[in-house]
Protein 1
Amino acid sequence: MGHAARHGAEPGASVNEGLEYDGEVIGGPNGEGRGPGKRGRIWPWLVATLIVALLGAAGGVLIALMQNMPEIRQLDSYRPSFATRVYSADNELLGQFFIERRIPVRLADVPPVLKEAIISIEDQNFYQHIGIDFQGIARAIYEDLRQGEFAQGGSTITQQLARGLFLSADKTLKRKLKEALLALQIERRYTKEEILERYLNQIYLGSGAYGVEAAAQTYFGKKVGDLTLSEAALIAGLPRYPSNCSPLVNPGKALARRRTVLQKMYECRFITGEQLAAADREPLRLTPRRSGNRAPYLVEQVRQMLEERLGQNALYKGGLTVVTTVDSKMQAAAEEAIKTGTVGLDNRIRLRNPDSDLLPQVALVAIDPHSGEVRALVGGRDFETSRFNRAVQARRQPGSSFKPMIYSYALEAGFTPQSKVLDAPLALPAGNGGWWHPVNYHNEYKGVITLTQALQTSQNTAAVRLLARLGVSPVIAHAHRLGITSPLGRDLSLALGSCSITLMELTGAYCVFDNDGIRVSPTMVREVRDGLGRLIWKPDHLRQRVMSQQGARQMTTMLQAVVEHGTGASARQLARPLAGKTGTTSDFRDALFVGFSPSVVAGVWVGFDSCIPLGKGESGGMAALPVWIDFMRGALAGVPPEQFAPPEPLKPQPAGGVVTTSGSPPAPAAVKPAAQQASPAEEAVTLSN
């Protein structure tokens, strides 16, 4: 038959004969054959075996991968780390606490232009693919080969989300396989809108910004919903190169990347050529970078307090909203006063020490006396240089600014502002066999004077005599009721402010005088809400009557005299009713002024952290009062002068004695023994002498 195969049986041939091809019999009787015919029978079995083996191996790999895969249902309860934002009472952003600075945003609040920009550059087939974009992968491979480098990623938005939530950034085949499998599962369980919203909140966009809302505020100082086309294109270009293309780090690369995104948007027909050209011409208009938080000392104090109360996880990841008590206008006035009010002092120190660059520290705290809310706080000249909060943490001697604690108790104990006290040289046993000789500033003595006059010019020996007459223990108890929490020494040097207390304590105590005898505990936080806006914490305000209204108002009039005619007379330049008291410690190591208007109480401290002297003559009126004046001028700008409520007129009193170390009037009943002191809520007895 030559080279033709016999496809039909010859007459008489067995039906089991094999076919012949080129003289070879293929498949003889009983399935037998020889030569190439045998190999032809085995080959399909080899192929089938290989396919089964490959499928088995792939299945084994798949099973191994699936065993270590996270469960996609975790996304239902997954909550990314969101930054806690801290606001002033008038809604100014003061600072943020975060591990990842992320601000949640709903997809409905993301402008279409940003969604289109992200899709154009990251995943053009987002709404068509099932989690893996085979067309995109092919395109990425082509571009990589064309450019000779790994220029294209090929991962879909869903794959990027899976990687960001569940996987590491390792560039391995195993990770890529897991990423693809997770993307398929995510697409089966969630809608495209849910996936896109999670992605836009999850991605890192450079310069510490996680998510598009944080990026919009970091780079442009605006909410994501207010982004322009050029701004949206710049942000959309960051997911792939968040560090290198950050406009704060490399503006040139950021602009080049923005141009690429705009071109992709044009190719996808999201924008016109005119829109592309106009957006590409726009210069970068970045928000100025702030160095740290506003009101940094207060923000740090709030951070420490909330971390202890709420825990680290809630504070740094919970996306809380913290509303503080800060008034942004007063805070700005405080920070400015620290700069302007110390110019004269700094110049004098430089003249005395021309070879030294060391300047004293300054602290200021301002409180609303009626609510206890801290309106402004500065704990030092520069938070970045020194984070030690001298308004809250530093315990320093208050000097004569402590004297109102003594005089206010005297008013509660039956004395009046017109009661007489002797101001003359004094010698008292020191307890070590020697004698203590308290002296007045400039060694000037006025003889018999009223309590108002004694406080007005800060006569030391008069204050010591008054304390000796009242008793140290009851005065200490009274000071604690006013809000002084630090331990106080139980000796007569307390009259000169020898104790160590914080500026916050001292300023809070003065609030009692300005609030008709009611103490309200100082607070820096109004409320804390969670990421859903639910109230989770609000401080309890301690409101307690600790002085009679009459005593508090009398104390205020005495402190007004200090401003009108005494050591605080420089404050008269503000031309409004004010009250306050200076304080100066031994060798001029500390200078203070604490004073108030009817609506705000402010305290200022000036001194070196090392407790070296400020310099001769640097008293509270010279070193601290200028800062206080500058602060009050700014804080009360535009506020009409307010009048203090006057005390009830004094009834005519019978002639009384003069307070000396051994004098008798007023009657001993005016001062209760320490064990019999009235409870904090109880009105003190006012006698008629």
Note: Residues 1-36, 662-689 have pLDDT under 50 and may be disordered.
Protein 2
Amino acid sequence: MRVLCPVVCFVLLAALVGCQQLTRNPFSVDLPPVPTWPAVPAAEPERTTASRASSQPGEPPTTPILRLETGMHTEVIKRLGVDAAQRYLVTGSDDKTVRVWELASGRLLHTLRPPLGAGNEGKIYAVALSPDGSTIAAAGYTGEAWDKTVSIYLFDQASGRLRQRLTGLPETVKHLAYSRDGTFLVATLGRTYGMRVYRSTTGAEVARDTEYGDQSYGADFDPSGRLVTTSWDGFVRLYDRDFRLRVKRKAPGGQRPFAVAFSHDGSRVAVGFADSTRVNVLSGQDLTPLYASDTTGVDNGNLSQVVWSADGKWLYAAGSYQVRGTRLIRRWTAGGQGLATNLPAAQNTIFHLLPLGRGGVVFGAADPAWGVLNASGQLQRLQGPATADFRNVREGFQLTSDGTTVQFGYEVGGKAPARFAVRDRVVTLDPAPDRVLAAPVTTAPGLEIRDWRNSTTPRLNGIPLKLEPSETSFSLAIAPDSQRFLLGTEFSLRLFDRHGAEQWQVIVPGIAWSVNIAGSGQVAAAACGDGTIRWYRLRDGQELLAFFPHKDRKRWVLWTLSGYYDASPGAEELIGWHVNRGRAQEADFFSAEKFRAAFYRPDVITRVLDTLDEAAALRLANTETKQPQKAVALQQWLSPVVQILIPQDSAMVSTSQIPVRVKELTQGRQTPTTTRPPSMPDFPVALVP
């Protein structure tokens, strides 16, 4: 009998004592523009207030971290990677995951989970896939919290294992790219730290250039191995095959060159800009300007992303440029010198383009979404978000006076309105107006708050409010007593008193598109970029509840910070626990439904907004149900994770018995298992030493 090994592994894993199947590693309406990437300042400090996770010095947090898992990214997709044979697509996101897709079908193959921590730690700003499809490089704000330097993670594509870390980088990684033959990997960095080049086989650094005046977001290799980069210092740099700087020249199209791409033969270089709608084409030999592609009519946003078709006949560009809310990919014939066509693509800023065979391209966007345009310019595939889009919900984000009922919209601009009652756990679609619900208050006597919408310089009575450098404000709510106000930004909530003194700040998962304060003045809520609505205790910013309404408008899940939850039928799989296994190993993910007996607590959920304290709600619920007055320790419920050692992955066997050896991986410990657990069914499997 011939049996494919992965099937046997699945049966064995399901049978092992105490083991559970888990996800294992083997983002006419007046649309506000998405902040110019990067949304987070390059030197963003770690904010421990965003998480209760504990950590040891030099190691990631060991406490399990509750996370959304929708089968798709929940925040902006920053970068893509495709192998030379175009079998696989890799996507990296601010949601701190890397996902591997079968490009032809759009099927999700793996979700890779690097170690993560509080605040920005774990956000993925850059990914690359080696030409042979074997290795995934991923980095961003990765490792800084425990190493105090940034790391590039190298994953085995087939198994999802974290094979190696390239450590010691002084700043966040903005872009990664492999050479055409896979020999080298380039990383460009934030601030003025320039670029590094590594040898792929060993991870050894072979070149660096730190003479940059600002951060770098673009790099590309030509077929011969030459390298070109961009920097916000205004320069495009060209290096020879030995990575010696040969030419450094300013491009005329803008002050902040962003993406850069060699043509198929290396004769031309295309450059897009973060601060311009221009697209320049330069000489691939000395970077002298050759021509500018026609951008007539491109009157908003930018065309920061550029890429050539595989044969060099077409030039593509995209970015935040939009028409009636749709982000367009602009394509020129004759290598950028001919006629231009606008091709509809995404609903939010397009952050990356890569060429595909036969003239097509694949794009990644902030929706979050990724898609494929074929050579005819048709949208052949679109993998869209599972999250509601809270952009521009504004007055449509409403609360009752006690905060227990919230109104929102599933679509941008507050369209497709819905209402959710925490006490009743009912989602009402297209609800009738109700006077008990109130929109955010944004004006009050004595509080002249200006420039708070899509601005880095909000002001109170003419005085600037203190934010992080480049932090953008998006939403505002004034408390009923007019003594405090809440500002929602691209990564935090900030409560100020009426004099502009900050009372507290907490990190939020994605842009706080809208905020509101309940009429009681006790509770605030935020509609976040990851598709969640979160409630906070106003006096100190303590998170109380999180609500995720799935875009299908049927499923929803509601949970506390400690993981007690309630969910509609079929929605328990939408959240789970991320468990770090150390800084040098990929993390594990356990779906919440595995712990239903301990954490499915609608009775606790009901009491949280009444008590404004999760621990008090738990005590009341336990008293009423006569349960032990003790919080659940999740670590005690985590199942062992095992790795199949024999037979090897994808091995074919034809014997009546299958010798199997497994290794248990639990809390970072590796314990060989060579005996059959007593309760294992009598499958035709033999565990061998």
Note: DSSP finds five helices and 56 strands in the chain.
Protein 3
Amino acid sequence: MLLAFDVDGQNAQHVLDSLGSKLVNAPADTSRVLLLNEIARLNHGKDYDKVEKLAGEMLLLSEQLKYTRGLALANNLLGSSNYFRGNYVAAIHYYTLAYRLFEKTADKRGVSRVLNNLGNIYNNRGDYSKALDSYLEGLRMATLANDQVVTSACLINIGNVYTYQGDISHKKESYRKALGYFDKALVVFEKSGDKNGMASCQNNIGSVYQELGKLTDSSVFYLRALDYYTKSLDASRVIGNKTNVSTTYNNIANLYVLTSEFELSRQYMDKAIVLAAEMKDKSRLALYSKDMGELYFAQKNFNAAIEAFETSMRMARELKSLSQVNFALQGLAKSWAMAGDHKKAYAYQSMFKQVSDSIYSEETTRKTTQSEMNSEFEKKQYEQQLVQTEKDILQAQELKQQKFFRNSFIAGFGLMVLLAFFIYRSYADKQKANIAITKQKEIIEEKNRDITDSIHYAKRIQGALLASDHLLKKNLPEYFILYKPKDIVSGDFYWAYAHQSSGQFLLCTADCTGHGVPGAFMSLLNVSFLNDAVVEKRISAPHLVLDHVREQIISALNPEGAQAEGRDGMDAILCAFDLKNMKLDFACANNSLWIVRHENNIASLVSFNADKMPVGLQSQSNVPFTLQSTALRKGDVVYSFTDGYADQFGGPKGKKFKYRQLEELLLSISSLPMQEQRKVLEERFDLWKGTLEQVDDVLVIGVSV
């Protein structure tokens, strides 16, 4: 078994004793919270009941003090404790809370620790793709925070992924990568004198050599594995890390199964199980039951093996650990086969294959890619053979021509002169054509430059009509605008007006039909109609403004009332902020309005549904828009947006970002300063889009009350 390195699992008894003495007289402030955190961290691998008790005290004190970092640290500890006990659902819950709280305080070190620990859960569940993503992002954040502990932890765990992953044809390469990551981590731990980290690394290196021994049937690798296990066991005993000791006992037991030393194997396995039971570590108990099944199988005690594998599978299903379920299924299939019940053996083998396919789907993709590469190579070989055949034919023809020239020199010479004439005339014609094409190209390029210059000028005009920074800063306490046109000009726009008579500040977030030049024309038209409604007609109610703009759009673009034409318009959110009375009136056409509120340091999102109709001609053109109102609270963040962000294709599978993911992203960043929120949104959008084309104009506006 590989040790997934959890960055909260280090301990030293002499340090614990010293911290315990300090805690007695520690005041009830943030320093006590941090002291409790250190004591809890150092109890990892020893006493998880104590860890959870200390974390509970941290939560209570941090809530009283409104200490966000303390809440984050406590939730991270509870996540780690539940992870080691095998309570993965609870662990994910606490880690997610910790992640949001660390993000809120911009704590890169804390975020990197949670990402590493979440990766451990995905790894244990067999979701290697998610695990690798978590570890790599954790490694990036740890590097930014210059945190050597988390950096080395992520390196170990990335190595673990490569050890678990891959079929037989890719195993050696995966093990090579794994050893590379473990060696890097070991160097970091040795430099820092971290014995806990060194022990974990040594254990994992031993596991890789053990797997190499199985793959190559070489006793040399088994001896190397035992050497590393012994070093890890000695170090873990010295620092009192029961988790490491238990894991290493189990690994040594598995090694002795491979070398057919069954008595020694049973002794070490019993020691491993006793320690795991003391720590109430469900995950390890499930794995050790599977390994006990392997011992019984090697001893040809198939009934006992079946019982052990069934116990392992039952526990693994409770943990929702796909990889451990897979191990148990494989053991049951071969045990029933040897016991003579081939029907059950076939059933378990089929289940094992299904689970394996889901785990190693990326390997299937790699095989397909390799096959495509092989197919392309064969195709190129065939093309090369065709070229060679053509060359052979040409050489034969050339010999025939030489013979002909010897017999008909004068006629051949005359033919060459005639041919030269035609070649020259063809060359002259080609030169004339090239000159004409060059001139045409220059004309086209000049026209393109003129068109591009015109569009850039249109961009300046459009930019001048958008709400100015001066107007927004004067009327809003804090805000951000993420505005990313797909082309030079945009169909999305934002408009604002300070209504003196009502004391309201109107802000419109709009998405016109189309993008690029057509969308920009529509945006200019709609800005004009908004100004007409609010400035000229003195309309201030958002729903009445949209009603008026709709009438103007239909009148301008479809004066005859034809249903098949003139369906241009816009989707829009028009807000009227009354910050003096802490009230927001608004009307929504197709796009919803979101407000994120914070209560007891927990962010929640309220969504206000839109009228399902645009500001333009459609079947419900006579239906008025709905006026909605809500009271604002201090700390509320009001978000309005067009559909461009959520509709962007990208990510690992080339799918849409979608509103659900946008909601989660806004919840996680809502406590950040507004310009920091804009930066995160833009970076996340660019990362999701990757090398794909931007599909639509993007506009997201956030206003902090």
Note: The two ends are 52 Å apart (CA to CA).
